[in-house]
Amino acid sequence: MSSIYSPLKTTSTAKNFQAFFNVDPNAWVSAVLKSSLDESKRLYNDSPIPHAIIDTLTRYVIGTGLTPKSAPDRKYLGWSVEEGNEFTREAESFFNLITGSSDFDFYGKDNFLTLQQEAFKTILISGDLLLHRTYSDKSRRYKPYIQLISGDWVRNADMNDTKRNTGGVLFDERGKEIGYEIAQTDDNRLDTFSSKKVSRYNSRTHFKEFDLIKLQSQQSGLIRGIPLLNPVKESILLVTSFERSYVTKALVQSLMTVFLESEQQTSSMLSGMDAIKEVAMPKSQNSDIEMGNDIELGPGIVVRLAPGEKANVAESKIDGADYETFINKNLDIIGAGAGGVPRELILQSFNSSYSASKGTLASAEKGFAIYRSEFQSKFNKPVWEQVVDYGIRIGAVRMPKGYLDDPLVRMAVLNCKWIGPTPVALDPVKEVQAMKLAVDARFTTMEQAIQQLNGGNFDETQDRIDRERERVPSSSVTQQDAMREYPDKEDDDAEEEEKEKK
User: Fold this and answer.
1) Model pTM score
2) Residue 278: what pLDDT?
């Protein structure tokens, strides 16, 4: 399967495959992609486990949306702190104004924060996403906007891949991506579609308009992305089948089943709530009872017992512990294979001790940081450069010296960091105390601490605090007094676990 996604003639496997069969291994990419996408979308829409995994990753990697923090390289540009702060304020304000409305969306539905969630979720389900960045000049409102195109629509029209067109990705003679083939729906014939080829760069401005974004944390050099659920789809189907069978078994055995034992060696079975008609029916109208044969009665109510009959109730023997163990173990495997999502986050249930839960969250956050870094470098960064560059060229943001002539100056000016959702705080008091100790020991900065604790901006937070202190008299309770109310306590995991057992 890996050779299918690899560029032509780059691996010994591909060469051997060609030597024996004289077939281009990339010729099957479109067919494999279609099958993978259909299965991934079906799993996400029809099963709660994959739905929860993708939603959890989106919630903890993107949150409500990554917010920009302009970070120009002042040392390279020779700027003072005041010059850097002035440019930062102008760039961030302009970016928020442009991207904060639904006009930034090609379809006019979402702002940039919501588009980030939609883009990341689409990449997880489909494997990749085509980002279209361009400018609108309709109604004399020349402004930038972006269009999200799902990977479903990037495909070869005739499903016959070649060296220059693999899975809808167009290559030049050197193997470099130069454009994409986008499917166009046909209203007259829904079973077919036409295609439109687009260039990666605008031929007039050399601006990179189209870019296929895929998460490559699993393998580099992929022509097309692989849906997140592909490696764990068999495990998901196994858990779904077991859960369905177990629920059916529980439903059947939850009905109170009564067996009637008769001295005349005839017996009947009453299952749940059916057969009041049969019990109350005269014998003359029921030949089976007269003949002494066994009768299986439907759900009903046992009104009375005939002379010599005795009722025996069959009890359910379902063992809930086996079901819970099976589900939990498989959720651990599925979560580890699909983005490293812990079972606790999938189920949103924390039943372990503080240190165990904290360790799980800390380990998961490292994986989330990798996804966040990839996404912001491939999706957020190009959008930031597009919008701020537009603001500089129209005069809304001051133009630095040498910006138009030196590409290195441009890179230094458009440098930016992105602030994501804050980690889960199981015990906010301990989190604040640990962060305060790190700041006092100079292991981190106050700016980093504010970003990690609540995702805030250091400058805005300090300005707001100064304004509040001017309006509200200082409290008699100092920071030291507040911290004394919550003294440090050592974690006693053994005691916590003992309480959980009880």
Assistant:
1) 0.72
2) 43
